[in-house]
Amino acid sequence: MEEKALNTLEFLKVLERLARHTAFPLSAEWAQALRPAPSLEDARHLLAETGEARQLLKDQPQTGVGGARDVRIPLKSAGRGMALTPTELLDVKSTLVAARSLARKMMDSEVSYPILAAVAARMPNPAGVVDAITKAISARAEILDSASPKLASIRSELSAAHERLLGRMQKLLTSQPFAKALQEALITQRDGRYVLPIRADARADVKAIVHDQSSSGATLFVEPLQVVELNNRWREMQLAERDEEQRILLELSALVAKHADEIEAVLEGLGTLDLAFARAKYAEELRASAPELMPLNPKEGEKHPGVVLRLFAARHPLLNAATVVPLDIELFPENYCLVITGPNTGGKTVTLKTVGLLAVMGQSGLHIPVDAGSQISFFENIYADIGDEQSIEQSLSTFSGHITNIIRILKEADQRSLVILDELGAGTDPQEGAALARALLDHLVQRGVTTLVATHYPELKTYAHSTKGVVNASVEFDLKTLAPTYHLTVGLPGRSNALAIATRLGLREDVVEAARSTIDPSELKAENLLDEIHRERDRSREARARTEEAQRVAQANRVELAERLEKIEDERVEVLERTRREAQTELENLRGEIGKLRADMARARQPLEEVQAIKQAAEQLEEKVKQPAVRKAVPESEPDRPLRLGDLVRVRSLGHQGIVTALSESEAEVQIGALRARARLGDLELLGEQPATNGSQEKDWAFNKLAESPGNEISLRGQRFEDAFANLDRYLDAAYSAGLRSARIIHGKGTGTLREMVRKELDKRKYIERYETADPGLGGDGVTVVYFKND
């Protein structure tokens, strides 16, 4: 995809915001360099990866690449045979530890996040690198004694030599002739050797080597001859320590260089995961949804490229989310060209940029700021001519700049492209500009190119109305406030508001009437009819909004009432249970009293019939008290209309959204991400419809009876062989009886024992049509997918 279009659509600004969410220099660079995927499959894979990352960060918010460092430069240095510093080695270790920790977490959640787990599985664990660095380098980037036996020995000798040297120097401080010659009783260093400060006039009284003198010349810093050998020995051990440390660093650096390819693979995996996390965080910031990318499906024998464009509540990602007006942008199935008209500053250009930018974002694996259910085709190329193309350097006017750009677009665009043209034909004589705009648009339409155009020319409204595959759209203008509303209406052209605006601003009525008298009566009639259509549509919209608000309030009241009844019932049960416990305590006390009374009467030889009657009454009362308080069913809040397959719902008890995939009289099966859950109808809140991607999808959704369904997945991992066999036996019978078409059996990889048992058992079942290993991204060898016969 050409860089000019990406720049025109402000995609690079989106990438700058994306890069702010990265936590790793490599992924930040990749974020800035992100471009649309080369194929529909790749784009869908990236979108799914972003979706998994969003779910992971919701479930485990602390997940990230914390501790990882960009060690590409140290790797290159090590490859050239250079010694890495302790800090650089610690960065390598920290990166490998972070990768190992993240990979372990991903692999533990492989079933829930198969795409991310597949990325983590590609990160190797270089053998011995972390352990070698840990043994040699401390957390404060110091080389440890344990780095090598030789270093430990040298440091031991160094410490002993140092102690001997200081001990001898200490004795010299109090012995003659140095005691009398000292300027000050202290031991200091000059040029790495220990010396004593003596008076310059006492130089002849001592035998020593002068190393330095004070700025005034009054003090000399001398090394007594008695400690020269000790100083030499101490210095020799220091050099030996330095050499051994350098050898250790070179050895560790060589180990890093040996595993450079593996470490680079780790960096690539960390960068990929962190970029996925960044895309997820940016999607949350935008309150975005994953678009459904559709293939272009040209109709045989027709010019129509088979484009799909359905963006609901679309918002430009660079505009303030609190103030931007969401747009519903939809091309009807028979159309592939949209002509937008309306007033200046009414939002035509923003609409064009929004569509183009969201298309680029979706094809780059980014979730886009639209409502769920939005669909857009995958375009191999997107071309845009938006804004002022004037160039002083090339001596081009605005008109010439636009035409030069359009000429290039006409050469390159085809049925697999999206072309966006703002103010087509502007910047020249209106009559010629309108004629040229119509000719250019007709050329693109005849070639079957998906095209979005913004214009002021009324001739293009007429062209759109009369040409197959082209549809009008308009941005609205509020004559009361004299301000645009930024709402887009597909199917109606924009109105000419010049005379109405002039009247509202106070222009003389006779001038306005004179202008109106010069207009063709047929055009005035068409404008009046268009005004009436817009007014009727506004009234319908207001009525629909009132109805939806009333439904929303009614639903909220039903939910609130259901919650209140739940709370009241909880309190009732709690009171009854507390009363039951108190009564049981009283009965226990009574039983004790009866026993005591019987003993007393037996000792007094009195008849026990009365005591026996009291005991029987107490036992009857105890039977009643033993019965726990029964919780009564609370009327559940039902949706505004009966649920249908494909509805978007929220499962209140789980707090997650999903799609209804099966229904019974009292329950529904809901697809939540990669998982399926069953829930009571009263536990579901209807959010909207999930549109089917094609006609066959509704046929594939059969009406399932859920009462006895065991679910479409069973996990045998971690079970003993006998338990796994019994659970599998029960599950297969139940799944077939429930009418399931397929099921997933998760047995893990391990030694393969469970997998072998599962497949032997499947071979014995006559109602099994076939089975296969799951796709690598959905569990691979750790999952067997079984298909049941449909009798």
Give the structure's gist in a few sentences.
The protein has 23 helices and 23 strands. It has a 6-stranded mixed β-sheet with strand order 10-11-12-8-13-14, sandwiched between helices. Strands 18-17-16-15-19 form a 5-stranded antiparallel β-sheet, with no helix packed on it.
Main features:
6-stranded mixed sheet; alpha/beta; 5-stranded antiparallel sheet; 23 strands; 791 residues
Give a written overview of the molecule.
This protein is 49% helix and 16% strand. It has 791 residues and is an alpha/beta fold. Mean pLDDT is 83; it is low at 389-396 and 691-707.
Cα-to-Cα separation, first versus last residue? 50 Å
Instruction: Classify the beta-strand content into a percent band.
Output: 15-25%
Helix content: 40-55%
Class by helix and strand content? alpha/beta
Low-confidence stretches: 389-396, 691-707
Q: Which value, in Å, is the CA radius of gyration?
A: 41 Å
Enumerate how many helices there are, as a single number.
23
Biggest β-sheet strands, sense, barrel:
6 strands, mixed
